[in-house]
Amino acid sequence: AALSCRYVLCEVVSEDPRCRQCIEDRAVGLAVRDAVGRVHGDYGLACCSISFTVKYLNAYTGTVLLRCRKDSYRLLCSALPFVRQLESRNQRYPCSLNTLHVGGTIRTCQKFLIQYNRRQLLMLLQNCTNEEERRCVQKSLLSCSLTEEQSQSGDEEDDDGPE
């Protein structure tokens, strides 16, 4: 049987615009492992490290998808608020990770992200000051959907939902 996993969808929140350039798999992975080690010690780090990986990352939107074993996702999630910075090329950028969703498959996280982005865009739409801005946001809203190609992603492991 396939190892039961959980996917944790997060966003990187930072005041520093330069932080975006260091949002990369390695930096995020190290920051998360460091936080888990500080909060839960060696035992927690060992539990979380089994099959832990950064599955998806979008530096432009600051979206990160982490995968871990189902039996250790609570340990992982409880340590995420303690991520304080990302480090890249000996530069440190203060930031935090905001957990958006925990799902049993990548697909459920994708669906959540689409709804989440749609809500964010709708809030932007309400704050538009002119017709040009409004048109741009509406165009973005229309593009918020899964394409056929994305929906065929073969990474469905188990979908028994979060506990």
Automatic annotation (TrEMBL):
Top-level taxon: Eukaryota
GO process terms (BP): rRNA processing; tRNA 5'-leader removal
Main location: nucleus
Subcellular location: Nucleus, Nucleolus
GO cellular component terms attached to this protein's record: multimeric ribonuclease P complex; nucleolus
InterPro entries the record matches: Pop5/Rpp14/Rnp2-like (IPR002759), RNase_P/MRP_POP5 (IPR016819), Rnp2-like_sf (IPR038085)
Pfam families, A to Z: RNase_P_Rpp14 (PF01900)
Alphabetical keyword list: Nucleus, rRNA processing, tRNA processing
GO molecular function: ribonuclease P RNA binding
Protein family (similarity comment): Belongs to the eukaryotic/archaeal RNase P protein component 2 family.
Summary of the function given for this chain in its UniProt record: Component of ribonuclease P, a protein complex that generates mature tRNA molecules by cleaving their 5'-ends. Also a component of the MRP ribonuclease complex, which cleaves pre-rRNA sequences.
Assembly and oligomerization: Component of nuclear RNase P and RNase MRP ribonucleoproteins. RNase P consists of a catalytic RNA moiety and 10 different protein chains; POP1, POP4, POP5, POP7, RPP14, RPP21, RPP25, RPP30, RPP38 and RPP40. Within the RNase P complex, POP1, POP7 and RPP25 form the 'finger' subcomplex, POP5, RPP14, RPP40 and homodimeric RPP30 form the 'palm' subcomplex, and RPP21, POP4 and RPP38 form the 'wrist' subcomplex. All subunits of the RNase P complex interact with the catalytic RNA. Several subunits of RNase P are also part of the RNase MRP complex.
Protein name per its UniProtKB record: Ribonuclease P/MRP protein subunit POP5
Biological source species: Eudyptes chrysocome (Western rockhopper penguin)
